[in-house]
Design goal:
Blueprint: E1 4-7, E2 10-12, E3 15-17, E4 22-23, E5 27-28, E6 33-35, E7 38-41, E8 46-49, H1 57-66, E9 74-76, H2 82-85, H3 88-94, E10 99-102, H4 104-114, E11 121-123, E12 129-131, E13 136-141, E14 151-155, E15 160-162, H5 181-196, H6 200-210, E16 217-218, H7 229-240, E17 245-252, H8 258-272, E18 276-281, H9 287-293, E19 297-307, E20 310-311, H10 313-325, E21 331-338, H11 344-351, E22 358-359, E23 363-366, H12 371-391
Parallel strand pairs: 8-9, 9-10, 10-11, 15-16, 17-18, 17-19, 19-21, 21-22, 21-23
Antiparallel strand pairs: 1-2, 2-7, 3-6, 4-5, 7-8, 12-13, 13-14, 14-15, 19-20
Helix pairs in contact: 1-3, 5-7, 5-9, 6-7, 8-12
This protein binds MU-OXO-diiron (FEO).
Amino acid sequence: MPIMEIKPNIFAVGTIDWDRRLFDELIPLPDGTSYNSYLIKGSEKIALIDTVDPIKEDELVDNLKKSNINKINYVISNHAEQDHSGGLPKILSAYPDAKVVTNPKCKDILMDLLLIPEDKFITIQNGETLSLGDKTLEFIIAPWVHWPETMLTYLREDKILFPCDLFGSHLATSELYVTDECKIYQSAKRYYAEIMMPFRTNIKKHIEKLNNYEIEIIAPSHGPVYNKSEFIMNAYKDWTSDNVKNEVILPFVSMHNSTRKMVDYFISALIKRNITVKPFNLAKTDIGELAMSLVDASTIVIGSPTVLTGPHPQVLYAVYLANALRPKLKYASVIGSYSWGGRMLDIIKSMITNLKVELIEPVMIKGYPKEDDFKLLDKLADEILKKHNNEGI
Ligand code: FEO
């Protein structure tokens, strides 16, 4: 990809991965992704902010060489994860005089992961600055964006924040800036849900700290650049707040239609009570869509048949992920069927200890649902409505 100018002497030099469909062998990437790297030419020194995934490192070096960048003084490493740091050894080999500028924790991780020798580093502390001549970089340590070593870099004179993963989106696009806010809202929310939601409290504090900075442009390390920084800031403030919506998330699996019949009835019961319901058939769903739905819902109801005395394995996987992602859910319940017994409820309860939820009386039925079973589903919908009303949502 050709390099693109953000402002005079500030360039996007990273790479786009149009075809990648899975990250960490776990996270679906329906729209590909990008590994953004930025070059800042000061009057005296040149800095590169982050590198790219190793699969694209040759392209990064080509981008720089084609732009006649023959010297790099500093490579700023905001985050040690390999999709941003993996190209570091290649860059250090292409620009042997360059020093890696980062905080001590990130340095340790980079030395462990990439075997970069210690004498290649310059370590900085929170609030420290680095002069490039007419441009000044300020470093803001922001642990637990999702790793413990992360920092953000602020370019004072141009009011640009380089926050690495924070505010990013897995979206491959040829456009430098956000043009379709609806699209980017979805991609950024999905990214937040999959990567950052477990660290909501930390991220809230980082965003509060950023209120002290005048930020005109946010240049993250995935997806397009924001030239209206308040758009993504406001979205993050909403996602990290304690506010929840009048919504039920309903991940389910059915094998012989008993649970499916319950799910269909329950969806209608919720709709009749003006509760938004988002069902996810786990046999088919994109797990990223499910994660995104959990960002601001108040309630999860898990639907499962009984398999070998416990929940269906697809349900176990979804419950494990939901628990790991720590969404701000307030209520949970379970619906499902069994033929001769099982320990489904005990198993699910033992798996959601991270969720600070109140468990509403589950509806577990024997075999195919009958009239009395549907009444129990109505009762569950009534109870959810009452809880939501009490929350004022
Ligand atoms: Fe995009 Fe945490 O790496």
